[in-house]
Amino acid sequence: MSKAISSQVTSGPGAAEGRSSVPVTSLHRVEADGVQVFYRAAGDPSAPVVLLLHGFPSSSFMFRELIPRLADRYRVIAPDLPGFGFTEVPAERKYVYSFDGLARTIDAFTQVIKINRYAIYVFDYGAPTGFRLAMAHPERVTAIVSQNGNAYEEGLGDAWGPIRKYWASPTAENREVIRKNILTLEGTRWQYTHGVADPESVAPESYTLDTALFERLGNKEIQLDLFLDYASNVKLYPKFQEYFRKSKPPLLAIWGKNDPFFLPPGAEAFRKDIPSAKVEFLNTGHFAIETSVVEIAAAMQEFLEANGVGRRSGESAA
Question: Residue ranges of the domains in the chain?
């Protein structure tokens, strides 16, 4: 059973004119797959569901400005993946941190909170997690929004160089290179600000919170394990693409075009398997949502409505 922790009114443009019109985001924990999954939720429980899946090294906190912009039309749910944010994994669970494991937990989470139809927004690590869900349950996915969520080799940028070296030779030395160059405050800030016209426009609490959370005892080892396992996602790219060709889900790829990790060709490649895919580029970096949430929310609403993802008479979200 889901346990509500607290509620918060999310501020934003227009909030001062009438706070009653701003959707309330509630915070919850629920046990799924032996894990205490923390999640944020907003919107009418009977509305169509949009499931937001974050990436590395973030959490559902990255959706703090997107959730209220969607929740007047949709039931918006944003969980923290195991190893991230405020989701708690008991030591006795002996959890294996892999992308198969993350997908199993989120699959169990959707079942516990009783959602069996949803559009998914996938970013970074959220993409291989969400695409695994979609392959396992294609009938549940009403649409996909990929914000710098890759599924093609041509989308992998040179920034993956040290991580590819770690895949090829997972030595202690290569693991230490990743630890020292990526799992730091400066490394995290760079991920948020690279390719952004005005780096000072990125809210510092974003990368500061991420850093504080991976500095928790044992968390860097979890992140290093997931970096190593990311190779499993690349091996699955042909399977993801087969799912796209077979199921043809409505898909919007909205991409920060200056992302050094996931390049614009990765967004354009979706059209090879889903010719009707809509592709949009934003003049920003990897964490496009930090600088372009207004544009992303508007594009999502237009895309979802155009593809029939909306409330129908007598239809509930579950």
Answer: 21-157+233-306
CA–CA dist 201, 214 (Å, integer): 23
* pLDDT tens profile 231-275: 999 999 999 999 999 999 999 999 999 999 999 999 999 999 999
Give CATH for domain 21-157+233-306.
3.40.50.1820
Could you tell me which residues come within 8 angstroms of residue 128 by beta carbon, excluding any fewer than 6 positions away?
99, 103, 151, 230, 233, 236, 240
Q: Give yes or no: 54 in active site.
A: no
Q: How far apart are the C-alpha atoms of 190 and 184, rounded to whole Å?
A: 10
Q: Which residues pair with 38 in a beta bridge?
A: 29
Residue in 28, 137, 194, 286 annotated catalytic: 286
Torsions phi, psi for 226 (to 5 deg): -70, -35
Q: What's the whole-number mean pLDDT along residues 103-131?
A: 98
How confident is the model over 267-301, as pLDDT tens digits?
999 999 999 999 999 999 999 999 999 999 999 99
Given a cut of 60, is residue 64 above it in pLDDT? Answer: yes
- Answer whether 129's CB lies under 8 Å from 230's CB: no
